[in-house]
Structure formats: structure tokens, C-alpha cells
């Protein structure tokens, strides 16, 4: 059964965040809130966690996983960014955007797109996510919590706990965080290409 954590949305309790982080370090797969919608997350090197995310969401090998990062310094460890792309992404973060970029050698082999060698990265503007990332000290490998055959992600922690009780290890609930996923921008060729229009304003990339 999944452990349920009720966290204050603006002032997350340090002890609770520490407890969740300990579970993630021990191999847990968690459902957690972001600034766009709930996500599934685990440590980068957690092969079982990656496999479980694929199973829950019915994803194939071409799916771009996202590394949810605390800040730009952390993001820069895992993707290659030139100066122009750096400025464009810097101006849009933190926020509800996912950027697809060439992965560095620090990204575990199982994560990059098998042909393009790219990975998604983002810096969320959400107090609970930021507190969790600060406690873990590394990115969370993540994917939007959108179940197969459904048009919108679940928005209520109690519903996630009820429906995914036996396939995730923990649910972090800080209230409704919306149903609109991130806007996805592909910068893998150096130019902005809008892959998905979502919560982030696309005007700056058009």
C-alpha cells in the first residue's frame, strides 16, 4: 500500500519532506505535485522505478522522461546547452515548461531517447517540489501522471492513493495542482520547436 503524505502547499513540513526523500533514496516510486499537474517520480538510476512508470502509463521506449531539477546549475549537469538556448530557457524558468535537449554522459543510459540521445528537463515553480528536490540533492526522474485512455491527469491526492495504491509507494498531496501538463519545447537542434502546448505560455518561443 502507498504511504500518504499531506503537505502544506506553501510551507511544506521539513520532517515530512525528509521522510519522502528517504523513501525515494530507498527506491520508492512516488506520485507528487508540480506547478502543472501531478507526476510520477523516482531516482534517476532506479531501473525498477523507470519500468514501473512505463507500465503504469503504458509507455514505449521512445517516450521522453523528464529530469525535474531544482535550479539551472543542476539542470546544466545533465544537458548540453549553447548560449542562445541558455538565455531562452533561463528566461522561462522556473515555470511550467519541459525542454528537450541533448543528454550529457551524466544521464543514466536507460533514460535518453534511444535514437536522438535527448532527455527532457524542467525547473518547476512549486514550493513542495522545490523542497523535495532540495532535500534529495539531485533531479527526480519524472513523467506526467496521465493514465492510459484518459484525457486528463488526476488532480486529487486521495484519488491517486485510491487508484494507484498497489503500484506506487507514496503519494504526496498538497492540494489540487491542475490538469494542464507542461508546455514542451524541443531545443535538440538549437532552434525552438513547440512539441506540446500546455501550461507554459508559448509566445516567447514562436
UniProtKB/TrEMBL annotation:
Residues 14-200 form the YrdC-like domain. One of its GO terms (molecular function) is double-stranded RNA binding. NCBIfam families: L-threonylcarbamoyladenylate synthase. Signal peptide: none annotated. This is Threonylcarbamoyl-AMP synthase. Pfam families: Sua5_yciO_yrdC.
Amino acid at each position: 500500500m502507498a504511504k500518504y503524505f499531506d503537505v502544506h502547499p506553501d510551507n511544506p513540513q521539513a520532517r515530512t519532506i525528509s521522510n519522502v526523500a528517504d523513501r525515494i533514496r530507498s527506491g520508492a516510486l512516488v506520485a507528487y505535485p508540480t506547478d502543472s499537474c501531478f507526476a510520477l517520480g523516482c531516482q534517476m538510476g532506479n531501473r525498477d522505478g523507470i519500468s514501473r512508470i512505463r507500465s503504469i502509463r503504458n509507455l514505449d521506449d521512445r517516450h521522453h522522461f523528464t529530469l525535474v531539477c531544482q535550479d539551472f546549475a543542476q539542470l546544466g549537469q545533465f544537458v548540453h546547452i549553447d548560449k542562445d538556448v541558455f538565455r531562452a530557457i533561463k528566461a522561462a524558468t522556473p515555470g511550467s515548461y519541459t525542454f528537450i535537449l541533448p543528454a550529457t554522459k551524466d544521464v543514466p543510459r536507460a533514460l535518453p531517447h534511444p535514437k536522438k540521445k535527448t532527455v527532457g528537463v524542467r525547473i518547476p515553480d512549486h514550493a513542495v517540489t522545490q523542497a523535495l528536490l532540495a532535500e534529495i540533492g539531485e533531479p527526480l526522474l519524472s513523467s506526467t501522471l496521465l493514465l492510459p485512455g484518459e484525457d486528463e491527469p488526476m488532480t486529487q491526492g486521495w484519488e491517486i492513493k485510491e487508484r494507484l495504491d498497489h503500484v506506487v509507494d507514496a503519494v504526496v498531496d498538497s492540494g489540487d495542482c491542475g490538469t494542464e501538463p507542461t508546455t514542451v519545447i524541443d531545443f535538440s537542434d538549437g532552434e525552438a520547436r513547440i512539441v506540446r502546448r500546455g501550461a507554459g505560455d508559448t509566445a516567447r518561443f514562436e
